[in-house]
Amino acid sequence: MLARLLAKRHVDASIQSFVKSLVNILLTILLIIAVIGKLGVETTSFAALLASAGVAIGMALSGNLQNFAGGLIVLLFRPFKVGDWIESQGVSGTVREIQIFHTILTTADNKVIYIPNGALSSGTVTNYSREDTRRVDWVIGVEYGENYDKVEDTVRRIISEDSRILNTPEPFVALHALDASSVNVVIRVWVKSGDYWGVYFDMNKKIYSVFNEEGIDFPFPQLTVHQAKD
């Protein structure tokens, strides 16, 4: 019933999961108090006992209190919301629920991860879904002796053939470094956030295929051995 009411009022999904989790806990506490009253235990005595144990319980649950406060901070400042892809505490995934103590992520391989809200509110969170666009980067190595102008022209042609790559900001291609066994070319393009991985993998395949067709060779690590004369 609560879920339908919140959905009817178009309450944000992040707030919905938090409120439902909080209400469930409050109703459980009220149910316990009601059952104790039915068993003949005076609720005033129980309340006094609960109050006297409050300090001890608070100390024991200090971590959960921090997580509860962290959940409120997450909802207030909204560094992420349900449906966002985030990275924090060494893990990444899509935010499925924001509960009062934990935020639940679903990873790309369908694992479920529970991260304490206290850690999320006080730690570093990378939100990959916050902005509409993202930059995709590659560093491609080619053999020494390859014509760089040909390499750059080939890369720019590949880029122009992919309609998912945005024209603004303009794609960037440059000679990145002269490495020990390769000439490294850096490629940077901007895409819509939802196209990031599709463009990344498709460009890898396209660059490999077209470079082979154009006779542009990829390097292999080489070691020169000098034999000492007797």
Automatic annotation (TrEMBL):
Annotated protein name in UniProt: Mechanosensitive ion channel protein
Native species: Bacteroides uniformis
Annotated InterPro entries: LSM_dom_sf, MS_channel_C, MscS_archaea/bacteria_type, MscS_beta-dom_sf, MscS_channel_2nd, MscS_channel_C_sf, MscS_channel_CS, MscS_channel_TM-2
Entries under Pfam families matching the protein: MS_channel_2nd, MS_channel_3rd
GO terms under cellular component: plasma membrane
Subcellular compartments: Cell membrane
Classification via Gene3D superfamilies: 1.10.287.1260, 2.30.30.60, 3.30.70.100
Similarity field: Belongs to the MscS (TC 1.A.23) family.
Acyltransferase found in the keyword field: no
Mechanosensitive ion channel MscS domain segment(s): 65-130
Membrane topology qualifier: Multi-pass membrane protein
Alphabetized GO MF terms: mechanosensitive monoatomic ion channel activity
Alphabetic keyword roster: Cell membrane, Membrane, Transmembrane, Transmembrane helix
Signal peptide boundaries: none
Start and end residues of each Mechanosensitive ion channel MscS C-terminal domain: 136-218
Transmembrane intervals: 21-41, 47-77
SUPFAM superfamilies in alphabetical order: Mechanosensitive channel protein MscS (YggB), C-terminal domain, Mechanosensitive channel protein MscS (YggB), transmembrane region, Sm-like ribonucleoproteins
